[in-house]
Design goal:
There is one protein chain. The chain is α/β, with parallel strands linked by helices. It folds into two domains: about 170 residues, Rossmann fold (3-Layer(aba) Sandwich); about 170 residues, Response regulator (Rossmann fold, 3-Layer(aba) Sandwich). It is about 40% helix and about 15% strand. The protein has a seven-stranded mixed β-sheet, sandwiched between helices. It has a six-stranded mixed β-sheet with strand order 8-7-9-10-11-13, with helices on both faces. α2 links the parallel β2 and β3. α5 runs parallel beside α6 and α7 crosses α8. The protein starts with a helix and ends with a helix.
């Protein structure tokens, strides 16, 4: 990995799925925690304010708030794993008289009682990026189809290995032990796409396919990705296909492989579509990634809350799905027959971060 690309990935070190506590709700307009007009108050609760995925999400929310005459109050945290932070954020927004909340849930189950409280207070609650469990605990979800994101990279990997004639030995680098919905969906989608019997689609790690060397968790960042990759290589040095929950974890996995001279022998696939990750597709460090669109999620969310405040209309799910699908695109420079994709040049035109 080039030093320039590696540094860029390090700046994206906190994963797009990282779990965080409340940092603060900054006062004032502009670049603080509050922006937009003096109209409808909309809350945005993200998992961090440093990860490029959530920076782009906040940018989309700010743009939509300005366009709809709404006022945005944003909340974020600074470390992984604190559901209480999001509970506090929702309490603050209820007290402030918000009309709606956009939230990327840290723990898609534990946050549900707070979401219920907000809805009982008359707020429209929209989950972004990650569905609550159950999904209908929120009024709506605007997200990537995470199962489809995993399915695409799994299908690509299957076709790639079939073309090469190699037998795959798979290592899976997941998020954390909590098995939140986005983690499960991407992991299981990948395995199904590769042709593995996943048994229970709601559970990671119950597969019995001998091609699976093992699972480990990364916290969605480079340090965790490196450690998890090292752990799996100790368990099975023959791993030649690595699934990662996101591109920062993929960066760490690549460094672990490079340290033992295996970086050219292992195919890495991932999900995110951030600019550093797509650059790594271009460089050949990541074979393929599924690109998602955080700015669109947040824009649509703010627009939905503004409409709800105006006439009570709630968003309608995409046809046949339990959420509003904001799209996903497979990005690779190694196209395979039967799997639709775009190249890294297109990915760089549509990336974030």
């Amino acid at each position: 990995m080039s030093r320039r690309v590696h540094r860029s990935l390090k700046r994206a070190a906190v994963a797009s799925l990282a779990v965080v506590p409340l940092l603060a709700m900054a006062a004032g307009c502009g670049n603080g925690g509050s922006s937009g007009g003096d109209g409808v108050l909309v809350g945005l609760v993200t998992k961090t304010d440093t990860n490029p995925f959530f920076v782009k999400m906040k940018e989309g929310a700010q743009q939509a708030a300005g366009a709809n005459g709404a006022k945005l109050q944003s909340f974020a945290g600074k470390q992984d794993g604190d559901n209480q932070a999001q509970v506090d954020a929702i309490e603050n927004l209820i007290g402030a008289g918000a009309k709606g909340v956009l939230i990327t849930p840290s723990d898609s189950k534990a946050i549900v009682p707070s979401v219920d409280k907000a809805r009982q207070a008359g707020l429209l609650v929209i989950a972004l990026d990650t569905q609550l469990e159950p999904a209908d605990a929120a009024d709506a979800t605007f997200a990537t189809d995470n199962y489809q994101a995993g399915l695409l990279i799994g299908q690509w990997a299957k076709a790639t290995f079939q073309k090469s004639g190699k037998q795959a030995k798979i290592g899976l680098l997941d998020l954390n032990p909590n098995q939140v919905s986005v983690d499960v969906q991407r992991d299981q989608g990948f395995l199904e796409g590769f042709g593995v019997d996943v048994k229970d689609k709601t559970k990671i790690g119950d597969e019995s396919d001998p091609r699976i060397a093992g699972h480990d968790v990364t916290d969605g960042d480079p340090a965790g990705g490196r450690t998890a990759m090292e752990n799996l290589l100790q368990k099975d040095p023959g791993i030649n296909l690595v699934y990662t929950i996101n591109e920062p974890a993929a960066a760490g996995a690549y460094e672990a492989l490079k340290a033992v001279g295996k970086e050219k022998d292992v195919v890495i696939v991932s999900v995110d579509g951030g600019c550093p990750g797509v650059q790594n597709v271009k460089a050949g460090f990541i074979g393929a990634t599924s690109q998602q669109y955080p700015l669109k999620m947040a824009q649509l969310g703010v627009e939905a809350i503004a409409k709800f405040a105006k006439d009570g209309t709630k968003p309608q799910n995409s046809q046949g799905k339990s959420f509003v699908d904001t799209g996903v695109t497979l990005i690779t420079d190694q196209q395979v027959a039967g799997v639709e994709s775009k190249d890294s040049a297109w990915g760089l035109e549509n990336c974030w971060g």
